[in-house]
Design a protein that fits this description.
Blueprint lengths: L5 E8 L5 E8 L10 E4 L7 E5 L1 H14 L8 H6 L7 E4 L3 E5 L7 E7 L16 H17 L6 E4 L15 E5 L9
Antiparallel strand pairs: 1-2, 2-3, 3-4, 5-6, 6-7, 7-9, 8-9
InterPro entries: Histidine_triad_CS, Histidine_triad_HIT, HIT-like, HIT-like_sf
Protein name: HIT domain-containing protein
Organism: Hibiscus sabdariffa
Length: 186
């Protein structure tokens, strides 16, 4: 269970005259959500000072989005492509659009999308006929990394389906960089 329970100390100024040391644990056994962080009191009592669960909402949104994944309705990305919704465009050509994520997970977080879905709601739906656009998306990710000054170190992520927290069913690549990435991710 050592892998399921990670513990470390958090040193925080409590007042100008003293400090408290609180244990921070993440564990499936401590809370209902596997990604929650529970801040324990200095004597390690089970009373929580604070609980953070950022991914619970992401998981719920991904499950909700999956229900309508293949209905053909315009996605938010279709509205960005048609300029109905404004975005900060980093790169654009006749087949690909790259724009800054409005909720960045890194100093550089750019989404790269095909302008035409053609059935590519997620990578798991890719067929041989999609080979060219998939290559163009990866090449566009490289161009974005160069434009953003992160060519020497960046990560490309594709979330596929609700268990990977895909929330928009229009294939997209996340180009992340500008900070040290760690392994394993997520």
């Amino acid at each position: 269970m050592a892998a399921a329970l990670i513990s470390f100390s958090l040193l925080r100024n409590y007042t100008t005259t003293g400090r408290i040391v609180a244990g921070v644990r993440t564990s499936r056994g401590l809370c209902a959500h596997r990604s929650s962080i529970n801040f324990l009191t200095p004597n390690r009592s089970p009373r929580y000072l604070c609980r953070a669960s950022a991914t619970h909402d992401e998981e719920a949104a991904a499950k909700a989005a999956a229900i309508n994944a293949d209905n053909g309705a315009p996605t938010i990305f279709d509205k960005i492509i048609s300029k109905e919704i404004p975005s900060t465009i980093v790169y654009e050509d006749d087949k690909v659009l790259a724009f800054k994520d409005i909720n960045p997970e890194a100093p550089v977080h750019v989404l790269v999308i095909p302008k035409f879905r053609d059935g590519l709601t997620q990578l798991g739906k890719a067929e041989q006929r999609h080979g060219e656009i998939l290559g163009q998306l990866l090449y566009a990710a490289r161009i974005v990394a160069e434009k953003e000054g992160i060519l020497e170190g960046f990560r490309v992520v594709i979330n596929n389906g609700p268990s990977a927290c895909q929330s928009v069913y229009h294939l997209h690549l996340h180009v992340l960089g500008g900070r040290q990435m760690h392994w394993p991710p997520g």
